[in-house]
Amino acid sequence: MEKTITRKEGFEEKLSSLLAEFGETSPAYKAVNYQLTQLLDKNAIGYLAEEGFLPTAGLPTGIVEFDTLNIDDIKNKRSNKSKPSYFITRALSEFAPGNKIVIDGKSYTSEGILLKNDRGGQAEREITVL
User: Fold this and answer.
1) CB of 9 within 8 A of CB of 120?
2) How many CA atoms lie within 13 Å of 129's alpha carbon, on the beta-carbon side?
3) What are the pLDDT digits (tens) for 21-53?
4) What share of the chain is helix, strand, coil (3-state, %, to 5)?
5) Is 88 in contact with 63 (CB distance < 8 Å)?
6) Cα 63 to chain center, whole Å?
């Protein structure tokens, strides 16, 4: 549970800095706010199993989704689009940056990988510095 609180606080801290720097209408602020909403709306049992809190007998873990969120979705507040998901070993090759992914007849280009972390925004800052 502490991990979730830390992750939530990391999102809130990032939102505060983005709000001060760019305002709440900026794409960066909206994207981080959307990710926070997704974290808070997750299925509790699945989340607890992924985090190792519950035994995973019979429950799939290590599943990675391809997020098709774009600026139009944020503006129109759409979030119920289908997201293909694969086991992590297949997802790393299928969703690698630069790859084309076709979903519901639309072609998407993978632009990067979002890392899950329990250190707030630290991992994002480390990647940006590289």
Assistant:
1) yes
2) 6
3) 999 898 888 888 888 887 887 777 767 766 777
4) 50, 10, 40
5) yes
6) 12
Tokens of 3: 């991990």
* Residue 41, amino acid: D
**Are the C-beta atoms of 13 and 120 separated by less than 8 Å?**
yes
Q: Where are the alpha helices (DSSP H) in 51-87?
A: 71-76
Determine the angle formed by the axes of helices 27-40 and 2-22, rounding to 10 degrees.
160
Q: Is there a contact between 95 and 83 (Cβ–Cβ < 8 Å)?
A: no
**In which residue are the tokens 């940006």 written?**
128
pTM: 0.45
Spatial separation of the C-alpha atoms in residues 90 and 96, rounded to whole Å: 10
Torsion 52-56-62-63 (CA) sign = negative
DSSP state of 98: T
